[in-house]
Design brief:
The chain is 41% helix and 34% strand. By secondary structure, the protein is of the alpha+beta class.
């Protein structure tokens, strides 16, 4: 069953974020992930006000968690934390 990493973020350092974005795509692909959503969002109802969002689909929860725990992502995570204020969630598909 597919699994998803969902990230909601506000960019606080555009230069660091540009580097993060450039490097993250290759790491996602190397771990079998694919972007479903990447960019600005529009809230249609409710109080949630994300500025930007990413949804990455992986084949299953093991693959998603392996990417999050990988050495490929460890350095990128530190870069993301420097470049954004973010919330990261995991969700299993149906």
């Amino acid at each position: 069953m597919a699994a998803y990493i969902i990230v909601e973020y506000v960019v606080t350092d555009e230069d660091a974020f540009a580097e993060f974005s450039k490097r993250t795509a290759a790491a996602v692909e190397a771990h079998g992930g694919r972007y479903l959503v990447r960019g600005a969002v529009e809230v249609l109802d409710g109080d949630w006000t994300p500025e930007r969002m990413v949804v990455v689909e992986f084949e299953n929860s093991d693959a998603a968690r392996a990417w999050l725990d990988s050495s490929d992502y460890a350095e990128l995570k530190a870069l993301r934390q420097r470049a954004t204020r973010a919330s990261v969630v995991f969700a299993e598909g149906v």
